[in-house]
Specification:
Length: 736
């Protein structure tokens, strides 16, 4: 047996998505990092060992333009390119390669941290046992991040924490119980099946549960075409201690899995003769355990009210998603959901311990109430919290600050680091003085100023209310729609969503009723007007009129999204939790002539927001058929010295990507990304000097480091090819 000591700037314990992103985020800030994972693979619940979908702010398409950027965004896009079929082992490789690409990270797999040395409110070191190699390793760092999920490091260090459910009186949360208890969300084991092409017998083990003696067949969806996380409701242990009783929980979950499979194979109710089991999990996927207390505890009110924290560092958008403590055996529904109207913010003060000075945390153990944890617990949200914690740890260490001092006294340092990293934050303007692009002016060879979709691909009868979100910058002076009518009138309303990240009607601004004569493919003018105080989204509502159909197009315009109003299902009610608007027309839209707008101007690539927020926030050229090599140019009044150019492209954050098999996106590379572009610099009237020629691109962010600092008065980006989009899009150009 060997005893080793490892010294790094940061030790990250836990190799799930929170830990992976924390390690990468800190390493890119210049820190050396030890990433310690007690399993042989990275990814935590998303890994091939457990196989849970990576869900996040998109909420499976409930939220609009909500997909994460930053490191989690990179992982989504890379997995889409490498692994469009959602193979769990390929997802493992995406994560492993992302970590190994960072030279400042040293990865320790199969290493279980079991002891912590902490004195005077600080962690000195943690010690782990590396299984297989029989090494005892002491990890010494000035800063630690507990991304372990269960929070053993924080607990052993003396960090304040909670488990179970707080009473309603604690934070005034309507979804909290009247009386506190120790109940948590339970753990899950999943299974995969395949068609063997010939009859396959299944003899159930003696321990398999007879699920016909339970409420499972009546209260849960069981079908032969379901696999993996479609059986998320195989959950148990919420009334036990999910750590102390982990082995018993695993045994019970496997008994349920084999009982369900016995029911599918042998009950005679399913066409399952040729189906066989391909994989059954052996590691329970835990949902909840310790939640540490930071300087702010995120609550139901913060999520649903979308509190705009000054120290916001991440966002989420999944519903508050709570499950009955009885899990799979509960007679009630397997989950209940309360969606916020759009994405909500998470503050830095929820990512560090209030009483252990050098402890950061990220993932499902952050400072949140049980109710708020119901949304922050999903893995893509855990990942962006991890990146924020990793960046925060590095920035604080570099500047000699405690986490509290960074959050409350020097948050500007954190904000600039987040924007430079293209992290997943909302409403944070890039005003970093190091970004010399802020001193430039931007022009373009062409700009989409009068967006329109004029070629019909079909019709949509207005048998229900239909909504569409359009960007308004600086004003809306009416628009035109292509319709069919047998005669009648159409009522149209314009609503303000009120928050820049929201895409739902909130406040009526204008309305009109239009007489629509009988006829097909008739353009009608809708005379709605609005001039908001700043660029905004408008929710246009077409009231149900069965005698009128609107034409649809097979393409989409940047920043636009469409909805239909739905009625509640038989088991739903018109409550404050019910969300009536459902997205429709993916990658498509209504036939429209929007009129003149500045929403896609070249100035959008300088500073501002690098994601949709009160508008699309990108430059769009005219169609490539009219401008075959569209270009952007930044011009400085005086020469600047540059050493790095950062180009951020449009990765279509409306597209809901996922790591495993939940759904198949019909392309491997997002069409809105530029496939090829050139970057050049010029000083005064001198010749253009090539800086970068990018080909076969499938990334959102490209960083171009100059061989030597160069003086320039002009920077030009020329788009050579997209990945299928009809126009060139650029989100941001930064110059350092």
């Amino acid at each position: 047996m060997q005893q080793l000591e490892v010294q790094t700037d940061l030790t990250v314990v836990g190799g799930g998505l929170a830990g992976v992103c924390a390690a990468i985020g800190a390493a890119r800030q210049g820190n050396t990092v030890a990433l310690v994972q007690n399993r042989p693979v990275l990814g935590g619940n998303s890994s091939s060992e457990i196989r849970v979908w990576v869900c996040g702010a998109t909420a499976h398409g409930v939220q609009s333009f909500a997909r994460e950027t930053g490191i989690m965004g990179e992982l989504f896009v890379e997995n889409q390119f490498r692994n469009p079929l959602g193979n769990p082992y390929y997802w493992d490789l995406v994560l492993l390669e992302a970590v190994r690409a960072e030279p400042r990270i040293t990865l320790y797999l199969n290493t279980d941290v079991r002891s912590v040395e902490a004195t005077d409110g600080e962690i000195r070191w943690v010690t782990g046992w590396q299984m297989g190699s029989e090494k005892e390793i002491r990890f010494v760092s000035p800063v630690f991040a507990d991304c372990s999920g269960d929070g053993l490091v924080g607990m052993l260090s003396g960090a304040d924490f909670r488990t179970g459910r707080e009473p309603r009186s604690e934070y005034g949360e309507s979804w909290a119980p009247e009386v506190p208890d120790a109940n948590t969300l339970g753990s899950t084991i999943l299974f995969y099946t395949k068609d063997a092409g010939e009859p396959v017998r299944f003899v159930p083990p003696a321990f398999a549960r007879n699920i016909t003696e339970t409420a499972i067949p009546d209260r849960r969806v069981i079908r032969t075409d379901l696999n993996g996380c479609a059986f998320w409701w195989i959950e148990w242990g919420g009334e036990l201690d999910v750590v102390d009783d982990n082995e018993a929980i695993r045994d019970e979950l496997q008994a349920v899995v084999y009982g369900i499979w016995d029911y599918l194979k042998n009950s005679g109710k399913f066409d399952a003769d040729t189906l066989t089991l391909e994989w059954v999990g052996s590691v329970p996927g835990k949902r909840e355990y310790r939640r540490f207390l930071g300087d702010h505890v995120l609550t139901q009110h913060d999520v649903l009210g979308q509190t705009e924290f000054e120290d916001r560092v991440a966002f989420g958008g999944w519903s508050i998603d709570l499950h009955p403590p009885g899990g799979v055996y509960a007679s009630e529904r397997g989950s209940k959901h309360w969606h916020p109207d759009g994405n909500y913010h998470v503050p830095l003060r929820s990512l560090y311990s209030r009483n252990v000075r050098n402890l950061w945390m990220a993932g499902r153990n952050i400072s949140a109430s049980h109710v708020a944890f119901g949304t922050t617990r999903v893995m893509a949200t855990c990942a962006v919290l991890g990146e924020a914690a990793g960046i925060g740890a590095a920035v604080a260490l570099r500047n000699g600050l405690t986490p509290r001092e960074l959050a409350t006294e020097q948050f500007g340092l954190m904000k600039h680091a987040l924007t430079k990293a293209d992290a997943a934050v909302l409403g944070v303007v890039d005003d970093d003085p190091a970004n010399l692009a802020l001193k430039a002016t931007a022009t373009a060879s062409s700009t989409l100023t009068r967006p329109a979709l004029e070629v019909s691909a079909g019709t949509l009868p207005l048998t229900a209310d239909v909504g569409m979100v359009v960007p308004v910058d600086p004003e809306l002076n009416g628009f035109e729609l292509l319709v069919d009518s047998v005669g009648g009138s159409l009522t149209v309303e314009l609503h303000d969503p009120l928050k820049p990240q929201n895409y739902l009607p909130a406040q009526l601004v204008d309305a009109c009723t239009i007489d629509v004569p009988a006829g097909e493919k008739r353009w009608i003018r809708v005379p709605l007007t609005w001039r908001p105080a700043s660029p905004s989204n408008a929710f246009v509502l077409l009231r149900s009129t069965p005698d009128i159909s609107v034409h649809t197009a097979s393409a989409a315009l940047p920043g636009m999204v469409h909805f239909v109003r739905r009625e509640p299902a038989p088991d739903e009610e018109w409550t404050e939790q019910f969300r009536p608007w459902k997205q429709i027309l993916p990658r498509a839209g209504l036939c429209i002539r929007l009129g003149e707008t500045s929403a896609y101007g070249p100035e959008k690539v300088i500073g501002g927001y690098s994601r949709p927020y009160g508008g699309p926030n990108l430059w769009s050229s005219e169609e490539l058929a009219w401008d075959a090599a569209p270009s952007l140019e930044l011009t400085w009044a005086e020469p600047v010295e540059l050493s790095e150019i950062v180009v951020i492209l449009d990765a279509d954050l409306q597209e809901d990507l996922i790591n495993l098999h939940h759904h198949r996106t019909p392309f491997e590379i997002l069409p809105t990304l530029l496939a090829a572009y050139d970057v050049e610099l010029r000083l005064g009237d001198g010749p253009w000097q090539p800086i970068a020629q990018v080909r076969d691109n499938h990334h959102r962010t490209q960083r171009h480091h100059l061989n030597a600092p160069s003086r320039a008065t002009n920077l030009r980006l020329t788009a050579r090819e997209t990945n299928g989009a009809p126009r060139a899009h650029v989100v941001s150009i930064r110059a350092y």
